[in-house]
């Protein structure tokens, strides 16, 4: 275990892991509507995108640049004057060296106390813990929701005694994520269906590995179940996170979304007003058969485990 023993109740963190385009932004913003809960988006990118401006999609969910946002200026203001950029460079260097998917098993061994932390791990986690504590003090006294989706980071955080970390693993049909990655967007580069599903398999296997260590601090949900019954799934996530609130989603799958302070993520995080949560299976008609086959082949070992058919039915063949 790493980190000092906590004084009082440690900040509670719901860390979302899994592959990208899985619905974490939507779920996080739903949870953000609950008093005392703050969805911070993909906090991993606070330093690269928010501070250094080296990535894309880096404005805060409130619409301001991250460094001038009322929340994040307070968080970054905890650093000694003149050290913000240097800290950001140091953190991003350590992230690349220690938190890649291939580092998941090593970070888990450290979290279990089976080996000493690699150089830089404790420093990196101390920085993350400091951010979580500050965010908790600025309105997230009940829960911080971090949608970074890096399994190795989730693994490392499990070893912190000064944080109460729960890991939520979100899975989505790899054919749906392949469609999302097929075309270039302002915030993501295009990716072939086979490559997208290759990453999908690696990230989900690593997330499962985290789950074996986390035990009762791990929950897996499917994007498809969230979109079909958002009220029930969000209620289950709330119970898992240790909250007794009712789901903020109504029986028809609607929720009014307000402002948030997500540091990066899907541009849908900027959406305001009443949002209807509904299934999205456009990939069944929009993705060519060859692309579906390529995405399926690369993800085949895990499809049945998550309840996805190996040979999905296309609407044109139904009935």
Précis, in short:
GO terms for molecular function: N-acetylglucosamine 6-O-sulfotransferase activity. The protein is of the alpha/beta class and 319 residues long.
Describe this structure in words.
The structure is a single chain. The chain starts with 11 loop residues before the first strand and ends in a 16-residue tail after the last helix. It contains 13 helices and seven strands. It has a single domain, classed as P-loop containing nucleotide triphosphate hydrolases (Rossmann fold, 3-Layer(aba) Sandwich). It has a five-stranded parallel beta sheet with strand order 2-3-1-4-5, sandwiched between helices. Strands 6-7 form a two-stranded antiparallel sheet. By secondary structure, it is of the alpha/beta class. It comes from Streptomyces termitum.
How is the biggest beta sheet arranged? 5 strands, parallel
Provide the gyration radius in Å.
19 Å
Classify the beta-strand content into a percent band.
5-15%
Averaged pLDDT, please?
Answer: 91
Strand ordering within the main sheet: 2-3-1-4-5
Second rung of CATH, namely the architecture: 3-Layer(aba) Sandwich
Instruction: Compute the separation of the termini in Å.
Output: 56 Å
The top-level CATH class is Alpha Beta
Topology as a string of helices (H) and strands (E): EHEHHHHHEHEHHEHHEEHH
Structural class: alpha/beta
Number of helices: 13
Number of domains: 1
If you consult CATH, what is the topology?
Rossmann fold
Quaternary form: single chain
CATH H-tier superfamily: P-loop containing nucleotide triphosphate hydrolases
InterPro entries: Gal/GlcNAc/GalNAc_ST (IPR051135), P-loop_NTPase (IPR027417)
Pfam families: Sulfotransfer_3 (PF13469)
GO molecular function: N-acetylglucosamine 6-O-sulfotransferase activity
Protein name: Sulfotransferase family protein
């Amino acid at each position: 275990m790493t980190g000092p023993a906590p004084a009082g109740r440690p900040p509670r963190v719901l860390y979302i892991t899994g592959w990208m385009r899985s619905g974490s932004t939507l779920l996080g913003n739903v949870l953000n509507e609950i008093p005392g809960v703050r969805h911070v988006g993909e906090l991993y990118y606070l330093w690269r995108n928010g501070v250094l401006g080296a990535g894309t999609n880096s404005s805060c969910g409130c619409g301001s640049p991250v460094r001038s946002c009322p929340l994040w200026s307070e968080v970054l203001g905890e650093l000694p004057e003149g050290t913000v950029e240097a800290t950001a460079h140091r953190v991003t260097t350590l992230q690349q060296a220690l938190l890649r998917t291939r580092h998941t098993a090593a970070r888990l061994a450290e979290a279990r106390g089976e080996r000493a932390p690699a150089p830089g791990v404790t420093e990196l986690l101390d920085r993350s813990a400091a951010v979580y504590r500050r965010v908790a003090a600025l309105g997230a006294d009940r829960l911080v929701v971090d949608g970074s989706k890096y399994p190795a980071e989730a693994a490392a955080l499990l070893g912190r005694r000064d944080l109460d970390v729960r890991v939520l693993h979100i899975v989505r049909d790899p054919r749906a994520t392949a469609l999302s990655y097929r075309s270039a967007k302002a915030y993501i580069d295009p990716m072939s269906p086979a490559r997208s599903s290759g990453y999908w398999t690696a990230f989900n296997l690593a997330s499962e590995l985290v789950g074996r260590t986390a035990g009762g601090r791990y929950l897996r949900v499917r994007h498809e179940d969230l979109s079909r019954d958002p009220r029930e799934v969000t209620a289950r996530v709330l119970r898992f996170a240790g909250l007794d609130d009712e789901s903020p989603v109504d029986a028809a799958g609607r929720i009014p979304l307000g402002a948030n302070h997500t540091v990066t993520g899907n541009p849908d995080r900027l959406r305001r007003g009443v949002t209807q949560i509904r299934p999205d299976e456009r990939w069944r008609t929009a993705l060519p058969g060859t692309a579906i086959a390529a995405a399926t082949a690369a993800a085949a070992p895990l499809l049945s485990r998550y309840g996805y058919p190996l040979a999905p039915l296309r609407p044109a063949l139904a009935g």
